[in-house]
Amino acid sequence: LRINVQLVKAADGYCMWSDTYNRTLTDIFRIQEDIARSVADALEATLLGQDLPPTQKTNARTYNAYLQGKYFAQRLGQADLRQAAAYLERAIAADSTYAPAWAWLGLTYSFQAEQGYTPLPEGFSRARRASERSLEFDENLAVAYAALGYVQKNFDWDWTGASATYQKALALEPNNAAVLEHTASIAMTLGRIEESGEQYRRSIEIDPLVPRTHYLLGVWALYCNKLLDAEEAFKRALELHPEYPN
Fold first, then answer.
1. Helix 159-172 to helix 142-151 angle, to the nearest 10 degrees?
2. Sign of the Cα pseudo-torsion (174, 178, 180, 183, in order)
3. Helix (H, G, I), strand (E, B) or coil at 18
4. I want to staple 233 with a disulfide (CB 3.0 to 4.6 A). Which of 68, 128, 218, 227 is the partner?
5. Where does the pLDDT of residue 225 fall: very low under 50, low under 70, confident under 90, or very high at 90 and above?
6. Rounded CA gap, 47 and 69, in Å?
């Protein structure tokens, strides 16, 4: 890979800083850290007032399979979720300790059960095991808590417990789009309506290409009697995925 990074002053197009990185693909996580640190130094700033958080490393094959699985998991169709599970299981076969793959596999199993593609007890039981497995490998992984909270909310009906789990996820990664989507859902369940809407919108702002989040924002708007907003959100979900099942 050759990655060229430039910091450009938008007002006049002046290039304030640039650098080029030549790396092999197997070093992808080190590339991320190198670039982030160089940019931070160039801006004479320290990210979040502290050192950069550690990046969980794996091999390129695992990481690519994980990204593909995550993509299909958010589309919710029966074939999509089957493909998501296959990719994530492939990622885990290549690196059984890669916590993010376990977390998204947990969410995938939950989605399959919730959509009626697998029996509820079986699907959510597999989801719980995968989520807990993720936390064994990384106890500070926000999406792993989100995956566990999903089981608590939608199968255990333990809304208080789910809310606490989701809040832990949010505290770990307040700008994670998937985590925000899930915390928005429990907020709506518990009657914190405005908070829920703000979190759905924030999730979309961070990652605007997930049809599921637009759909859920539409449901939120529908319940709030904001019919034009609901229509707009549902249309956006269909633009992103015309066969989105919900």
1. 170
2. negative
3. strand
4. 218
5. very high
6. 30
